[in-house]
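Pilot study result, target chain (396 residues):
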Amino acid sequence: MKTVVVGLSGGVDSSIAAFLLKEKGYQVIGLFMKNWHDESVTISNDCPWLDDSNDAMLVAEKLNIPFQTVDLSTEYKSRIVDYMFNEYKLGRTPNPDILCNREIKFDVFLKIAFSLGADYVATGHYCRKNILNSNKKTPIYSLKAGVDKNKDQSYFLCQLSQEQLSKTLFPLGELHKSEVRRMASELKLVTANKNDSQGLCFIGKVKLPDFLQQQLKSKIGEIIKISPHFENYNKSSPVFNSKEDELLYQSKPIVYENHDGTVVGKHLGAHFFTKGQRKGLGVGGTKDPLFVIETDVNKNIIYVGEGKSHPGLLRKTLKVVNEEVHWVRPDLKLSIGEKLLVLARIRYRQSLEIATIFQTTHGLYVEFLNDQIAITEGQFVAWYLEDELVGSGVIS
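Predicted structure:
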């Protein structure tokens, strides 16, 4: 009998993942990860990790499986939180959920699971894993989108390796969320009607802006509104000697140093804001909403534009430096000079967009067919072949 350690988060998805695996005949162990208990960032009197841990324990009791809690707060702080704060200080916007999966759940947690004698670990992610050549000595694993397109979470797993995939099971990949809720209700699990977590990965109800404001110092600066007719938007492209030169030019963000913008408000720190952000600016009186189109953390300035169609929000091309390019399917890795037509997204919930990726000497470029809104440094771009996620990288 194969042993599976399930990351029981105290939510409905991991609960049903554990149930399904037990039904299939696996020996299932439930393990809850305690990743944060720093009282200096307590936002309310709630104790979400304790509530979640209790719910996970009740689910384990109901399913009659062993259960324990592991404290990974030291690893979480060093690998996720410290990195995240540093990125925000630099004016970049990291994705802690993707990092958490790569660094904690499918690394530290996986190693603990195997120390307990596990053959696999399992999660409640809505995605699928297939083996493409099971008859070969070294099989190739594919990571595919979940059947429930509204819940597909493959993007959050875009940094996984073949080694990690080989040891992981995703029991919910063929299910819809409504089916998972129904099963949990029929089993009378305490998590059946529990809302999905909306906070930081494994921290719970702590919201990111509140979290940042307790760790990064406030510093008053200007909010400057840039006209949609800013001359840099209308400059004709120079003549390029190569496709790489053209891609490099197109991927660079607009610089607003020589702007003729208008100061429309104040903010408490440019590092608290990210491209595409609309809420939290505290500036009214415009026909259309204002969006952050750029931040300058060195000068502590936020540049904003009016409306979603503002040219400062739109770009078709982005770059990933070679050190940050990751192939879930290394057998598909491009050589220098090669290109590939793919589907890509730059954020969770975004529809897949047609794009071409180009591998060059200095990095991998993703050129979208259509303009993308708020391409943001520090976030991840993931590229797919049909519904299979084959690679990803950090936007530079």
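One observation from the pilot: Residues 3-213 form a domain with the Rossmann fold fold (CATH 3.40.50.620). A full batch analysis is planned for the follow-on phase.
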